[in-house]
Amino acid sequence: MKQKFILRLTSIFVFVFILMGTFITTEAAVKKVAIGTFANGAKSRYGTLACSNLESNIFSGLVQNKNYEVVERAQLDQIFRELGLQNSGVVDSKSAIEIGNLSGADYTLVGKVLTAEVIPFDNILYRGYKGKVAFEMHFVDNKTGLVLYSDVISDTDSQMYSPGVSVNERVLISGAAHNAANKVLEKMNEITPLTGTVLNVDRAEDVVYFDLGYDNGVREGDTYTIYKEGAPLVHPVTGEILGIKETTLGTVKVKDVKSNYSIAEIKKEKSAFKTGDKIKRGE
């Protein structure tokens, strides 16, 4: 009798341990990002406007995406001042690790506006003005200090010529910065995939519904992988939960996006999809 009680108690303990591990890992899947003040490398009023618009658009995009948590601006500004990093547009390995230690952020995004200009264009068929913004971004892992991604992201916005209508330069720069910010967010999502849960599998329509939508950064045509989570991966020495085993079940392609959920066509199904399976961006 006593032996059965001990075995039952042990089973309950193991179950609770796995359950707690799942919750801890799920919580850790939300990545915390520090967004530094972007430097005005263009040295112009357009550059200042572009910096402001890039920061606000990227911040808003991350806040709306449940895959991320953003460090409060006041806290980060204080940290940057202490480290002497204001308006530099770069973060070295040592500073990145310090930012992580002081703010709890997993990643730091910094950068510099290289180009912010409004120029006329005339390609015979169309005349008008084009706003252009080029942004040098650096996405850094605060645990290792390694730069995960570094590149120049650029985009434009245009206004067609109309007699008697003056060019709105601020709108063009803001539009170009908004478009460039979307590219930055897409790149960040590639590096840290968006994850969610399958809500329903419709066999008649050969589609799945899942709990991520436009507000989370899902776009029509995106490919997502459906997978099943298994037991926690526990370090044998430290006991630290490092992650969860994953079994890939197949892939889907998004066909319709709502504000808080999406519908995707089943493309490849190695094992039957079920409600409650996990889903993440990419293949």
From TrEMBL:
Q: Which InterPro entries match?
A: FlgT_C, FlgT_C_sf, LpoB
- Keyword terms: Lipoprotein, Membrane, Transmembrane, Transmembrane helix
Is Endoplasmic reticulum found in the keyword set?
no
Q: Which domain of life is it from?
A: Bacteria
Q: Which residues form the Flagellar assembly protein T C-terminal domain?
A: 208-272
Query: Is Mitochondrion tagged as a keyword?
Result: no
Q: Where are the transmembrane segments?
A: 5-24
State the protein's name: Uncharacterized lipoprotein
